[in-house]
Write a structure and sequence with these properties.
globular, 6-stranded mixed beta sheet, alpha/beta, 19 helices, about 775 residues
Length: about 775
C-alpha cells in the first residue's frame, strides 16, 4: 500500500501541472464590482526587469522559505513558495530524451501511459554531424518535449572531454576537442531554452571517467584545465547563457566538484560572471559547510528514500535544509550566502515555470521524428569503403546477410540516467527490411549472444532476446548465411550494459565483447564483401580492420535508428559525419593511458577521506594532440569521415600576411565536388604555432564549416581568425597570451588529411 500511496501522490502533484500549461498568478485579476485591476506585486509582473522581480520576491520570503527552495522535495523536484504563488521546479533527465516519470522518491517508474518520448541520437552522434544547425534543431526539438511535460530543467547536455575511450559515459558527451564541443553546445542550449526550459550543462568539471566517480580526484594543471577541459563549459555559460549548471561527483584539488570554490566561485561565478543556478549531481553533496561556501545553490538526491526516514521527512535533513537553517540561526553562516542562492533559484523560476510567454511544446510530433532521423543520417560516419562496397544497391543485390545481435537489440533502454521510454524504436534489421522490401533477399543470423536484458528501472522493451543455442551453433549459422550472400552487413559493437556504454562503470578494455572480433575475422574468410556497422558511443579496437571492406560508425541513433542507417547503407543519403574523437588502434596511442594514470592511485582529500588521485600527466596533449606529437598512426584520425562522392581542395589563402593583435585574418579555400553525386563535406581549419616559446600542439582545431556541393560545384569556404584562436593560457600570469610570430593555417578533411596551408605573421 505504501508504494501505491506514493504513486498516487506523485500523480496528483503532476497532472494539474500538465493540464495547466501557463501559470495564472502573473495576470491582472479584477474582482467582481471593482473598477480597476488589483495591484500586481512586482515579482509577478513579467513586464518588470528580471532583477527587480527577483529582489521583490526575495524580500517577501521568510528564512524558512528561502531554505526550502534550495533543496529537493522529491526525486526530481524542489518546492516553490505556495504562499507567494511561486511554483515548484521540476527537473528531468536528458540529454537524449525526456525521462519517464518515476515515483515520488524512487527510481522506479510511476506507471504512466502517456510519458513515452522521442529518443534522439546520442550526443556523440550529434557531435559527429559537425553541424551547429543540427545542434540547434536537436535542442529545439528535445526542449519542446520537455516543455510539453512541464519540466523546468533538462539535465544536460554533457560536454566533458573524452580523455579515455574507456569512459562509460562517452556516448553522452561531444568528443575530445574543446573547440568542436564549444561550437556544438551553444546552439543546443539556445534551442532548448527557446522553450522556456533550462539546460543544466554537466558535469562541471573534469568528469572524465565513471569508474570510482565519487572518489576520483583529477590532478590537472591550470593550463590544461583552461585550454582543454573548460572551453565548452565557458561557451555554454557565456555564449549559450545556460540557466543552470550541474556539478560532478568527482573532486578537484581535494574538494568535491559540485561545491568546489575554484570551479564554482572563482571560475564560473567569478571569471565568467555567471548568474544561473549550480545544481548538485544526485547524491553529490557530503557536507553542509563546504557546500554552503563552495558555490552550490541547489541540493538534489542526497538520500534515496526521503519519505521513509523514521517519523521525519528526510528532505528536511538535507545538508541545505535543517542543518543550514540551524547554522544561519546560530551565526555559522551568513544571510548573504543564502540570499545569493535564493536569487539564483528565483531567476531560474522566472525564466522557466513562471514565464507566461514560453510555448506549449509538443511530444512525439512528426517534426521530432524527422529531426531524429536527420540528425542520425548526418551523424553516421563512413570510416572505410574499399572497392566502393557501399552503398548497397538493392536492385543489383541478390542476397544480403545481416549478422549480429545489434541488428535486433533496442538501445534506448539502459545505460544509466539517459535511459528512455521511447514511443517506438526501429532496429537496424527492421529498417533495412522496410527499405529493401523484396528487392533483395535479407537473411538474418544472430552470430553471438550478448546482453539479453530488456528492462531498466521498470522500463521494458518487450523484446525476447534469450537464445538457448550454443556459441558454435550461432557461429555456424552466421558463417552459412555469409557464405551464400552477395554482401555481409555485420551489426556489432557495444550496448548499454555495465562496463560498456553505461553510467557508473567504465569499459575494461577497447575490445569488442562477446567474441565479436573472432567472429568478424571468420566471416571475412568466407566472404570478403563484409561491412562492419559498429554501434557504440566510443572507439573500439579493430584487429580485423584490414580484413573487411567497409566500416561504419553508427552510434546510438534513438527512435529512428533503423531508418537512418538504411538511408545511409542504401545510398538514399550520402554520409557526411566526421569523427569527434581519435579512433585509436590501441590504448597505447591515448595520452591518458600512455603518459597519465588511469584510473589513478589512492590519495586523501581535504577532509581526510580516501580518494583516487588521477594525474593528468599528458597535459594539453589529449586526443589528436597526443598522436600528432608522438607521430602515431591511429586507425582513423580525429575529423575523419568518407563520402560516396569525392572532394578536391584548392589552395588556401589569407587576406593578409601580416596582422596586429586587433586584426581578423580571413582564410579562404575553394572546395569542389569531383564525384557523380551531391554530398556534404566538413572543411576543417587547424592552427599551428611552429616557433612558440612554450610547448604547443602540432595543430589545434579553430574552425569548421559543413558545405553541400552538387556534382562539379565549387564553393569558397571562409574562416575568420581572431587573436582568441591564436592564444595559449599562461598559468603563471593566469591569462590568455598571444605570442607574436608566425602562424600556419592548415585546411583539410581531417586532422590526418591536411590539404593546404598558408602562413601569416602576427605583430
Amino acid at each position: 500500500m505504501k508504494s501505491k500511496w506514493k504513486l498516487r501522490v506523485n500523480a496528483l502533484w503532476l497532472v494539474p501541472a500538465l493540464l495547466c500549461c501557463e501559470p495564472v498568478m502573473g495576470r491582472d485579476i479584477t474582482p467582481a464590482g471593482a473598477s480597476s485591476p488589483t495591484t500586481v506585486p512586482v515579482y509577478l509582473d513579467d513586464t518588470k526587469p528580471l532583477e527587480q522581480r527577483v529582489e521583490d520576491a526575495l524580500s517577501r520570503m521568510t528564512l524558512q522559505e528561502k531554505i526550502k527552495i534550495i533543496h529537493a522535495q522529491s526525486k526530481f523536484s524542489s518546492p516553490g513558495v505556495p504562499r507567494l504563488g511561486i511554483p515548484e521546479i521540476w527537473c528531468t533527465d536528458g540529454p537524449h530524451g525526456i525521462r519517464p516519470e518515476v515515483l515520488w522518491d524512487e527510481w522506479e517508474q510511476a506507471g504512466w501511459t502517456n510519458d513515452s518520448c522521442t529518443a534522439f541520437p546520442s550526443l556523440t552522434a550529434l557531435a559527429a554531424t559537425w553541424n551547429p544547425d543540427m545542434a540547434l534543431l536537436y535542442g529545439k526539438s528535445i526542449g519542446e518535449e520537455a516543455r510539453f511535460r512541464n519540466k523546468s530543467v533538462l539535465l544536460g547536455p554533457g560536454v566533458n572531454i573524452y580523455r579515455t575511450p574507456l569512459c562509460g559515459r562517452n556516448f553522452e558527451y561531444m568528443g575530445e576537442d574543446p573547440y568542436l564541443s564549444s561550437r556544438m553546445v551553444v546552439p543546443y542550449v539556445k534551442g532548448v531554452q527557446s522553450n522556456g526550459v533550462a539546460t543544466c550543462v554537466k558535469h562541471f568539471a573534469l568528469n572524465n571517467n565513471d569508474i570510482n566517480r565519487h572518489t576520483s580526484n583529477p590532478i590537472v594543471d591550470d593550463r590544461t584545465l583552461y585550454e582543454i577541459y573548460l572551453p565548452a563549459f565557458k561557451a555554454a555559460a557565456t555564449e549559450g547563457n545556460s540557466w543552470s549548471f550541474m556539478g560532478g561527483y568527482n573532486l578537484f584539488r581535494g574538494e568535491h566538484a559540485s561545491y568546489n570554490p575554484i570551479l564554482m566561485n572563482q571560475i564560473l561565478k567569478g571569471e565568467w560572471n555567471y548568474d544561473g543556478v549550480v545544481i548538485s549531481d544526485w547524491g553529490a553533496v557530503h557536507d553542509t559547510k563546504t557546500a554552503v561556501t563552495g558555490g552550490l545553490d541547489m541540493e538534489f538526491g542526497s538520500w534515496t528514500d526521503g519519505l521513509a526516514d523514521g517519523v521525519s521527512n528526510a528532505y528536511d535533513n538535507y545538508y541545505f535544509a535543517n542543518p543550514y537553517l540551524k547554522g544561519i540561526r546560530n551565526g555559522t553562516y551568513s544571510q548573504q550566502e543564502l540570499d545569493d542562492k535564493g536569487r539564483r533559484v528565483l531567476r531560474l523560476t522566472f525564466r522557466t515555470s513562471m514565464n507566461r510567454n514560453r510555448p506549449y511544446g509538443s511530444m512525439g510530433s512528426d517534426e521530432h521524428i524527422e529531426a531524429c532521423r536527420r540528425i542520425g543520417q548526418e551523424g553516421v560516419v563512413l570510416l572505410q569503403n574499399k572497392d566502393n562496397i557501399l552503398p548497397v544497391d538493392p536492385s543489383r543485390t541478390r542476397r544480403i546477410a545481416v549478422i549480429g545481435e545489434n541488428a535486433i537489440k533496442m538501445m534506448t533502454v539502459g545505460g544509466g540516467s539517459s535511459s528512455l521510454k521511447a514511443r517506438y524504436e526501429i532496429t537496424p534489421l527492421e529498417g533495412l527490411r522496410k527499405r529493401v522490401g523484396d528487392a533483395a533477399g535479407i537473411v538474418y543470423a544472430r552470430g553471438y549472444v550478448g546482453d539479453t536484458t530488456t528492462s531498466y528501472n521498470g522500463v521494458v522493451t518487450g523484446q525476447k532476446l534469450a537464445d538457448r543455442r550454443s556459441a558454435q551453433e550461432l557461429r555456424d549459422e552466421a558463417l552459412e548465411a555469409a557464405r551464400n550472400a552477395d554482401v555481409v552487413l555485420f551489426f556489432g559493437g557495444l550496448n548499454k550494459s555495465d562496463y560498456q556504454d553505461a553510467e557508473g562503470t567504465d569499459r575494461k578494455s577497447m575490445d569488442l565483447p562477446y567474441g565479436q572480433n573472432e567472429l568478424i575475422s571468420a566471416l571475412a574468410k568466407v566472404n570478403p564483401n563484409i561491412v562492419v556497422i559498429n554501434i557504440s558511443g566510443t572507439g573500439v579496437a579493430m584487429p580485423w580492420l584490414g580484413e573487411v571492406k567497409g566500416v561504419l560508425q553508427a552510434w546510438y541513433l534513438g527512435t529512428e535508428t533503423g531508418r537512418a542507417l538504411a538511408d545511409v547503407l542504401t545510398g538514399d543519403v550520402n554520409p557526411s559525419g566526421k569523427l569527434p574523437y581519435t579512433y585509436y588502434a590501441s590504448l597505447d596511442q591515448c595520452g591518458a593511458h600512455k603518459m597519465g594514470e588511469y584510473p589513478g592511485h589512492p590519495g586523501i582529500d581535504a577532509l581526510g577521506n580516501e580518494v583516487m588521485d588521477i594525474p593528468y600527466n599528458e597535459g594539453i596533449f589529449v586526443g589528436y594532440r597526443f598522436t600528432d606529437k608522438n607521430r602515431l598512426k591511429p586507425n582513423f584520425p580525429f575529423g575523419h569521415g568518407l563520402s560516396y562522392t569525392t572532394f578536391k581542395y584548392g589552395k588556401a589563402s589569407a587576406d593578409r600576411t601580416t596582422a596586429s593583435a586587433d586584426d581578423t585574418v580571413t582564410i579562404t579555400i575553394p572546395v569542389t565536388n569531383t564525384g557523380a553525386r551531391e554530398g556534404k563535406e566538413v572543411v576543417q581549419l587547424y592552427v599551428s604555432d611552429p616557433k612558440s616559446s612554450v610547448p604547443r600542439p602540432v595543430k589545434e582545431l579553430k574552425g569548421f564549416k559543413k558545405v553541400s556541393l552538387k556534382p562539379g560545384e565549387t564553393k569558397t569556404v571562409a574562416f575568420e581568425l581572431t587573436a582568441d584562436e591564436l592564444k595559449y593560457f599562461d598559468a603563471d600570469r593566469h591569462e590568455w597570451v598571444l605570442e607574436p610570430g608566425e602562424f600556419d593555417a592548415l585546411v583539410g578533411a581531417s586532422a590526418g588529411d591536411i590539404r593546404s596551408k598558408v602562413r601569416f605573421t602576427v605583430k
